[in-house]
Structures are given as C-alpha cells and as structure tokens.
C-alpha cells in the first residue's frame, strides 16, 4: 500500500513543477544558486520544495513565490489578456545545482 501512495506523490510532483522559467533575470539568479520555475497556481511552498528535491535530487534552502499578472495585449486590433501564472524562485544549498537545459 505504501508503494501506491509514493507513486501518487511522484505524479503530483510533476503537476507542481510545470517548466523552468528561462529569462535574463533568471540567468542572473543562477549565479546565486537559485533556479526559477513556473509552478501550479495552487502549489504551496512546502509542495514546491518537496517536488524539486524529489525530481532533481538536490537540497533546497528556500522557496519564494510570485504570482505574475497577465499583461493586456492586442491582436488584430482587439485587446486580450494573457493568463496569470505563478513562479517559484528556488534557492539551492551550497554546492548544489540544477541544469534546466536537460530534460527530466
């Protein structure tokens, strides 16, 4: 029974971490042992920490979250709104690193 519960938790880890968020600022944060991920909107900091530790095999020092509001854009003259999304800045322990260019 314990194996079945562990398998469900592993699937949830993939639901929490959606994708790496690669921007210039995120690249600058990598100098300070931090990685930025797009995460599920309902994900909590402990869930994000557990998912990163389980998926990448690293130890996490801290997690900060940000909800980025969607911008109003125009397409063919008509305005529309991009979706909001949640980002997590995950600070890793000293000596730990994650290569976001490789696949999981």
From TrEMBL:
Which domain of life, per UniProt? Answer: Bacteria
By its UniProt entry, which InterPro entries does this protein fall under? Answer: Nucleotide-bd_a/b_plait_sf (IPR012677), Ribosomal_uL23-like (IPR013025), Ribosomal_uL23/eL15/eS24_sf (IPR012678), Ribosomal_uL23_CS (IPR001014)
Would you kindly state one Gene Ontology biological process term found in this protein's UniProt entry?
translation
Keyword Translocase included in the entry's annotation = no
Q: Does the keyword Membrane apply?
A: no
Q: Which GO terms describe its molecular function?
A: rRNA binding; structural constituent of ribosome
The family database entries (Gene3D superfamilies) matched by this protein are listed as: 3.30.70.330
The record's keywords, sorted A to Z, are: Ribonucleoprotein, Ribosomal protein, RNA-binding, rRNA-binding
Q: Which family does it belong to?
A: Belongs to the universal ribosomal protein uL23 family.
Q: What PANTHER family does the entry give?
A: 60S RIBOSOMAL PROTEIN L23A
Name of the protein in its database record? Large ribosomal subunit protein uL23
This chain's source organism reads: Sphingobium jiangsuense
């Amino acid at each position: 029974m314990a194996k079945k519960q562990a398998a469900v938790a592993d699937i949830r880890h993939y639901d929490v971490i959606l994708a790496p968020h690669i921007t210039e600022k995120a690249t600058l944060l990598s100098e300070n042992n931090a990685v930025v991920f797009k995460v599920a909107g309902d994900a909590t900091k402990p869930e994000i920490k557990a998912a990163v530790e389980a998926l990448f095999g690293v130890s996490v020092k801290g997690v900060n979250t940000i909800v980025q509001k969607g911008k109003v854009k125009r397409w063919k003259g008509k305005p529309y709104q991009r979706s909001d999304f949640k980002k997590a800045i995950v600070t890793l322990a000293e000596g730990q690193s994650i290569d976001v260019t490789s696949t999981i």
